[in-house]
Amino acid sequence: MNKFVYIIICFTVLFYLFLSCITPFEPAGVNDTAGILVVEGIILETGTNIKLSRTVKLDERLHGSSFSHFVNEAEIHVIDEAENVVAVAEPQRNNEGVVPGAYVISEPVVFVSGMNYALDIRIGNKQYRSAFVSPVHTPEIDEISWKIDDDRSLVIMVSTHDPVDEIKYLRWAFEEDWEIRAPLFAAYRYDPLLVQIVEQDFNTSNNRFYCWSSDVSKSILLGTTDKLTEAVIKDKPIHRIPAYDSRLSYLYSILVKQYGIDKEAYTYFDILRKNVEDSGSLFGPQPTEKTGNIRCLSDPDERVIGYIAFSKETASRLFINAASLTPPDVICNEENQVLLLVSDIIIHTNNGIGIYQYDVNNSVFVGVSRKCVDCTVSGGTKNKPDFWPNNHL
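^ thats the sequence. predicted structure below, dont judge the formating
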């Protein structure tokens, strides 16, 4: 029996035993997939990100653990065929410190034509290395476009072609940012940290009318022209946003990144994509035992998952005036307003009510649902992207 199929059967048996409140047992081999090193990344001429993690045991997943543990303190180098170091990856950092399991190559990597390269990883006393491969050039993105589908979803599409008709396999990733506007502007809000009502200035960043949020692609996005007469991809859907999503609140932006890859890389990522989509796991039934092009030099029998490709990144950004499409379905009208006494502000705030305005005649505040006056309720923050095209605060 295929080893991967056996593992899935074992997982299924254990899962149903768990649901039936029967004392679970651990079949032999069920944790064979624990502790496997997983390597993620495409080595680029500029701005490379690499992630290292290890898979965890099934019982850890059942008790709320993620599917992997991050690997820190690794030494990572890009080397050429003569084993000369051409780039070094450093731990990635943000405002909170070192990002677990994340490494970055910030200096430009100069690929020499005709030369093959590999990624060398050292973790403790073990050494891992990818196959030596030749960098693949990437055609430019012709266009990022969009359409409204029959169900009112916003569909983002990419078009590209290779003028030299060489690159037949592509992978995409994207970063999306969007501006969220609250349906109503409130001149006041209750600040739980200050334990008092504060004024909000429309022209300063202390308001809760303008917010921003962001996300990155999580699916494996692939395309091929292998069976076509020309290396042309037209209007390929890569992202879908449901109608009335908060991303369609006001202004939306997507940065699409494109990478040329070879056939072997495409095959690997396509298998991985099918596994994740069909079973939600790296370890779904697989048509082959292929686990990528990473090997453990210290222990050839050790399994490693990952495929390191060397490529060039091309990118294109699109802005969409999302407010003209299908803005979030938020009901904010007079019928939903309530009068708030100052003494009851804390109670109403805890119950999801926000301050809308002040009724001078009755000396009371007017309240509505917080989502009507506070853009942070829809997942926004005051972290405005540097490239944003307007001067909202």
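The mean pLDDT is 85.
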